[in-house]
Amino acid sequence: MNTKIKRIAISTGGGDAPGLNAVIRAATIAAINRGWEVFGIRDGYNGLFLPHDYPEGGLMPLTRHAVRGITHLGGTIIGTTNKGNPLKYPTKRKDGTMYEKDRSDEIMRAFKKHKIDALIAVGGDGSLSIAKVFSDKGMRVVGVPKTIDNDLSKTVITFGFDTAVSFATGCIDRLHSTAEAHQRVMVVEVMGRYAGWIALECGVSGTADVILIPEIPYDMNKVAKKINDRTKSGAKFSIVVVAEGAKPIGGSTSVIGKELGRAERIGGIGERVAKEIQKLTGKESRCVVLGHLLRGGSPTTFDRLISLRFGAAAVRALDEGKSGVMVALDPPTVRYVPLEEATKRLKNVPLNSDVVLTARDLGTSFGD
Fold first, then answer.
1. Within 10 Å of residue 279's Cβ, how many Cβ atoms?
2. CA distances for 125 relative to 89, 149, 154, 181, 235, angstroms
3. Can you tell me the distance from the alpha carbon of 71 to that of 181, in angstroms, rounded to the nearest whole number?
């Protein structure tokens, strides 16, 4: 056992994902079994540098009792946030204008104040990029890949993705019957930011007729042709799945907002596509935005298991003296990869991936 570690902290940052609580439980129990104390940092890193906002304390003691019975629960018992990036924290100048301030040194001092020896950072590319900074400043850090978008490099899959895809596929199944009953085009917008993994896998699994993803810019005329061809063949309805980051050829991603200290908000593409389809085909079109429904609910068996494996592996990495690494799924094992490699680029859908090729063989249109 690594006797240098006596107390660790766990943070969950960015959008929530099914499986977060399972990671927390596994990491907590594995650490306690090694004689370590465990604390959860509330709401990302807010519990450390905004302690006045937490009368009960910015650090939540994680005991066996605190993590009992949470494996199947969605969300995160310690809270999360996707705003207030501590490296670019929104701060007001004396003249009232706002700017982004680097407050990472404050957090490093808070780690020292609370005698935190190591950090398990659970998050996506943004959260793990922040964790990389703390690692560079001397904190022992192990990252755990979390995002329903499945866009983190160096891991075959991230937890939360399987649950999101399973739910989205179930929704598409339901939309088939109402679309056919009304002879409509149903456009389903799903999350994923700049990667099309969710749209691709739920679209193929749900037998969508058109799938639009960021990796393949689309031509609306070709989308309309696919729908018109179906109508001529006797199919009076169509299902179109759109990733929120999809964009037309020569166009840009649909952004609905940008605030200091947080990533830009993407959305609105589904409604736009539905209106264009109705205009070009004359068929009544409706848009369904699944949005945050994809983040909620109980994790699937796969996500529960991989979350528990990741949480335990993160503690093992610390016990083995590792730092500045992320645990990653490399079937059949979990291995450690440098945080820098895991966060330097997004994992996009390869255009020659087997799932894309399968979709094309089945006659699915990507609008290209």
1. 11
2. 17, 10, 12, 42, 42
3. 40
Domains and CATH numbers, the chain: 7-159+299-331 (3.40.50.450), 164-294+350-361 (3.40.50.460)
For residues 212 and 92, what is the distance between their CA atoms, to the nearest angstrom?
Answer: 40
CA distance 267 to 255: 6
| pLDDT band, residue 301 (cuts 50/70/90) | very high
Count the neighbouring beta carbons within 10 Å of the beta carbon of residue 300: 20
What whole-number distance in Å separates Cα of residue 105 and Cα of residue 121?
17
End-to-end C-alpha distance for the chain, whole angstroms? 56
C-alpha–C-alpha distance, residues 187 and 211, integer Å: 10
Place of tokens 């094992």: 333
Positions of E strands within 146-195:
185-190
The pLDDT of 5-24, averaged and rounded, is: 96
Token readout for 123 is 């998050």
State the catalytic residues. Answer: 149
Our CA dihedral for 209, 212, 216, 219, rounded to 10 degrees, sits at 80
pTM for this prediction:
0.93
